[in-house]
Specification:
The protein has 57 residues and is α+β, with helices and mostly antiparallel strands. It has one helix and three strands.
Length: 57
């Protein structure tokens, strides 16, 4: 079974902080499935992972 999560960067969040968040999700087994933007004002990323994953780390 799959599990989904949406993360987004707001107007005031630094790119480096957003990248750190995205990398942390990747280490936890999340994979990017889709991205969206609104004229550069924000980005949303749809993540997917196996709901029964074993978190190593």
């Amino acid at each position: 079974m799959k599990e989904y999560k949406i993360i987004k960067i707001g107007l005031f969040k630094k790119d480096a902080d957003f990248l750190d968040d995205l990398n942390q999700h990747g280490r936890e087994g999340w994979e990017v499935k889709s991205t969206a933007h609104d004229h550069g004002r924000f980005v949303k990323i749809l993540l997917e992972c196996d709901k029964n994953r074993i978190n190593i780390g």
